[in-house]
Amino acid sequence: MVNLSDFVQIYDDTLDENKCNFLIDLIEQNPEYVQNEDEDYYSVMNLTELRDSSMEVNEIHNSLIKIVFEHRDKYYELFDKRVFPEKHAFEQFKIERYVPNEEEHFFTHIGVKDYSSARRYLCFMWYLNDNAAGQNKFLDLFIQPERGKLVVYPPFWMFPYKKFEPIQEPQYILKTYLHYK
């Protein structure tokens, strides 16, 4: 019997420390590419737009695509492959930064919440740094942020999650989605 929590898969050490640090430095050192949301508490940078800015960004982008394909295949093997689309597209890779704040900013949410996000069917989320706080809770699973850890999950209403606020230091996440094509 399959439980809903079985659809949330965790893969450790899928992104090495150097790449994680590079991506964190990228969002910190290039404010002109960062969009601030929620009064600077949450910021996002579109990594895909920076692909051509340096050879290193392009190499990391290409390695991320390979990691997604590898873990997509592992994920598909857990279930009947026929339930997944044969063709898909990628959403842009985005680096997210969450800074500690005294106000509660987190709430339970999902990745598909409107017409523009309805093409999403599978999320790939990497933690870029360790963080004592900032866990994600999916159903009955608490996931501790650890550098290089990848979480793969469906972004639908059956898989709501809550992201807990980082306490002492910013938390960095890299995220992409596979889309129906």
Describe what you observe in this structure.
This protein has helices at residues 17-29, 55-78, and strands spanning 9-11, 34-37, 42-46, 88-90, 94-98, 108-109, 120-127, 136-138, 141-143, 150-153, 161-163, 171-180. It has 181 residues and is an alpha+beta fold. The chain has a single domain (4-180), classed as Jelly Rolls, CATH 2.60.120. Strands 1, 2, 3, 4, 5, 7, 10 and 12 form an eight-stranded antiparallel beta sheet that branches. It starts with 8 loop residues before the first strand and ends with a strand.
Number of strands: 12
Q: Main beta sheet: strand number and arrangement?
A: 8 strands, antiparallel
**Secondary-structure arrangement, i.e. CATH architecture:** Sandwich
Structural class: alpha+beta
Write the topology of this structure:
Layout: E1 9-11, H1 17-29, E2 34-37, E3 42-46, H2 55-78, E4 88-90, E5 94-98, E6 108-109, E7 120-127, E8 136-138, E9 141-143, E10 150-153, E11 161-163, E12 171-180
Antiparallel strand pairs: 1-10, 2-3, 3-5, 4-12, 5-12, 6-11, 7-10, 7-12, 8-9, 8-11
Which keywords apply here?
alpha+beta; 2 helices; 8-stranded antiparallel β-sheet; single chain; Jelly Rolls; 181 residues; 4-stranded antiparallel β-sheet
Summarize the structure.
The protein has 181 residues and is of the alpha+beta class. It has helices at 17-29, 55-78, and strands at 9-11, 34-37, 42-46, 88-90, 94-98, 108-109, 120-127, 136-138, 141-143, 150-153, 161-163, 171-180.
